[in-house]
Amino acid sequence: MDSDLNLKATELRLGLPGTIDAISPPKNSKRSSPDSDSATPPPKAQIVGWPPVRSYRKNNLAEAESGSFVKVSMDGAPYLRKIDLKVYNGYVELLEGLEKMFKLTIGEYSEREGYKGSEYAPAYEDKDGDLMLVGDVPWEMFKSSCKRLRIMKASDARGLGCAV
Amino acid sequence: MCLFQFQSVMNYFPEEVLEHVFDFLTSHRDRNAVSLVCKSWCSVEQFSREKVFIGNCYAVNPERLIARFPRLRSLTLKGKPHFADFNLVPDGWGGHVYPWIEAMAKSGINLEELRLKRMVVSDESLELLAKSFPNFKSLVLVSCEGFTTDGLAAIASNCSCSAMLFVIQVFSCLYTQVVPLLVRGYCFSVVDDSIFHDRFLRELDLQENEVDDRKGQWLKCFPESCTSLVSLNFACLKGEVNVAALERLVARCPNLRSLRLNHTVPLEVLQKILVRAPQLSDLGTGSFTHDPDSETYIKLTNAMKNCHSIRSLSGFLDVNGRCLPAIYPICTNLTSLNLSYAPGIFSNELIKLICHCKKIERLWILDTIGDKGLGVVANTCKELQELRVFPSDLYGVGNTAVTEEGLVAISAGCPKLNSILYFCQQMTNAALITVAKNCPNFIRFRLCTLNPIVPDAATNQPLDEGFGAIVQSCKRLTRLSVSGLLTDQVFLYIGMYAEQLEMLSIAFAGDSDKGMLCVLNGCKKLKKLEIRDSPFGNMALLSDMGKYETMRSLWMSSCEVTLGGCKTLAEKMPRLNVEIINEAGEGDGEATYDNRHRVEKMYLYRTLVGPRKDAPDFVWTL
C-alpha cells in the first residue's frame, strides 16, 4: 500500500490539493504554475460547487438566459444555428442578422404577399407549434411567442404567402 | 459602593422591573448575556423572552426550547450547513421543521412568527402550522425545500379563523328571530374578541425556495375577509398564479407594504396592482417586458409615478431593457435595488438606470455591469453600504466578468461601504491593499474568483498579502471568504488580525496544517468555519478540541482529515456531534472503513442533546 510511504504527498503534481476523489479538473488544465497562462479557469470539467452560487440562483439564471435563444434551421443546411432574439430591436435587424448568418437574401415583407423577391422565406414555430410567417405580428409579440426559426425555400413556402 | 452593597441593591428590584428593563433588549445576544448574570436574572429573562434564535436546529431540541422559553412567540431556525447551498450536502441530510411545529402545537405555545433557513418544510408541517396557532402572523422561508403550493394554500386559508366566522354568520341571521340575549350570549362566548382584530396572516415571505408548483389556486385561498397582509413574496414560485385573485387580494389589503411577484405575472397586471397599491414600499416585479409604445406601458409609467413610497425594488425576472425608463421616477428614492436575477438588462441600460439611483444603500447586480459600470456606481451611489456582484456566466470562460478595477473604483467612491460579495475574473494584491486602505469599515468581505486558485493577475504571486491587508485594516470584520491562490501565509494574517471574525469560508487554500492552526488559535470569536479542498488534516483538527465547543460548527470537505482523526475527536468531546457524510459507493459500512481513510465530508457542531435521531443512512455520527 502506498499509505506508508505516502507517495501521493510527495508526488509532483500541479493540481488542486485534496481533489483526488471529487470531480477535479482534467490534467491538462492544471496549469497553475507561475510560468504559464494561469488566468484561464479550469474549463469544461466543472468543480462541484464552484463558483459558490446557490443552486436556486444557478437554475434561474440559466432559464432566463436561454429564454431568448432560439434555434434557426435552414432547409438544406447540415446543422442549425442559434440566435438570441433579445439582441434585435425589430424585424429589420433580425432579418439582416439572418441574412448575414446564412449568407442569403430574404427579400421584402408585405402583408399581402409575404416575402417578395427572394428564394427564401423566414418562418417560425410558435407556442402552439404552428408554422407561421415571420412579420405578421408586432415585434414584441413575436419575440415572446417564437420558439424556433426556420428559413424555408420559397418553393416550399407557397402556402405561407411567398410570391416566387 | 462596594460590590456586595451593589448586589443587594440589585436584588431589591422586583421581577416586574427587571422584566421591563429586559424588554428593551431586542438582540438575542444581549438577552443571552443577561441570562448569564445570575439565577434570578436568568429566570426573569427566560420567562419573558418572546423571540428566540436557534442558529443550528440540532444544537437543541424542541422540548428544551419550550421548557426554557414558554412565552415564545417568534422562532428563527437554521438547518443545513451553509455549503449545502452549493450542492455539497446530499438530499435527505435533515433539517426537518415538523418536530418543532408539532412540539410547539402540543405545548400550547402561542406562536406568531416562524423564520426558517435551509430547512426541510413539508406540506404536513405547513398544514399543522396553519391550524395550530390562532395568532400566527408571519412565515418567512429562506432557501427551504420540501413543500408545494398545497402547503401554501393551507397557510393562506388559515382555517381556524374561517370556522369562527362561519359561526358568526350562522347566528347573526338568527339574531333578530331567536331570543336576542340567548343568541348574543352564545355568540360572544364562542367568539373571542380578537376575531374582530386581524387574526390573519400578515407576512408570507418566500425567498429562493425550491417549491413544487402544483398549479393549484393557493392565492385564492386567502379568505375574502383577509385584509391584514403586510408582506407577500412569492417571487420564487415557478407556476402561474390566479391574477384576478391577486388583484383582489391587493385591493383589500390597505396595509400591504411589500409585494414581490413571480415571473408569470405580466406587466399589465403589475400596472393594475400598482394603481391599487401606491403605498407599497418594497416591490418585486414579475415579468417586465412589453411593447414600450403600448398603452399598457404608458399606464404603467403613470402608475409608477404615483408610487412615492417605494424604497426597495427587485425582480425584472424577464425584462425588456427598453421598458426600464418607467422606473426612473422611483429610482431617485430607492435605497435597495436587486437586479441580480435580470441578465436581460445589458450593461448600458444598467448604467443608465444606476445614474438615477443616488440614494442606493444596498445594490445586488450581475457582473454584466462590468468595471465601467462599477465606475458609474462609484461616482453616483455615495450612500452605498452593501454591494453584491454575482456571476452571469456560470458555464463559459467568463468574458463579461468584472475585475479588480471595478472593486477598487467602488472602494474609492463609496465611503460608507461595509459589506461586499464580489465574484470576479481576476484580482491583484495591489488592488486589495488599496481597497483595504479605502474601506477600513468592512463588516463582511467575500471575494470569489471564478477560478478558485487564480494568482495575482499582475505578479502571479499568491493573494496572501492582499487579504492580509484587508484583515489588518478592517478591525470590525465579522465575515470573510477568501479565494484565489493562497498559502499558509494568509492564515497567519487572519489569525493575527481578524479579532472580530465570526465566520470564515476557505476553499482550495493553504499548504499545511499550520494554516488551519493559525485560524483556530488566533480567531477568538470564531463561530463558523467552513473549509473545502484544502490540505488540513488531523494535526490541525485535533490541536485544540475544546475550541469547537465555543463555535457553532465546523465543516471540512475534501481535506486531509481521516476517519481515525474524526473518531478521536468524537470520543474526547461528547458535547460535539461529529458527523461524516458518506455518499453512495464508499464502502459497505463503518466496519470496512480503515481509520486511515480520508473523510470526504465532515460536519461537526456543538449540541446539548447528543446525536440526532433523524440522521439518514449516509450520515454517521461518530
UniProtKB/TrEMBL annotation, chain A:
GO terms under biological process: auxin-activated signaling pathway; regulation of DNA-templated transcription
Keywords: Auxin signaling pathway, Nucleus, Repressor, Transcription, Transcription regulation
Sequence segments annotated as region (Disordered): 17-49
Main subcellular localisation: nucleus
Compartments in which it is found: Nucleus
InterPro entries linked: AUX/IAA_dom, AUX_IAA, PB1-like
Subunit structure as annotated in this protein's UniProt entry: Homodimers and heterodimers.
Function: Aux/IAA proteins are short-lived transcriptional factors that function as repressors of early auxin response genes at low auxin concentrations.
Protein name: Auxin-responsive protein
TrEMBL record, chain B:
GO molecular function, a single term: auxin binding
Highest taxon above the source species: Eukaryota
One CC-aspect GO term: nucleus
Residue ranges that the Swiss-Prot or TrEMBL entry lists as coiled coil: none
UniProt keyword annotations, A-Z: Auxin signaling pathway, Developmental protein, Nucleus, Ubl conjugation pathway
Keyword Nucleus: yes
Entries under PANTHER family matching the protein: F-BOX/TPR REPEAT PROTEIN POF3, PROTEIN AUXIN SIGNALING F-BOX 3
Protein name in UniProt: F-box domain-containing protein
Organism expressing this protein natively: Salvia splendens
Phylogenetic placement of the source organism: Eukaryota, Viridiplantae, Streptophyta, Embryophyta, Tracheophyta
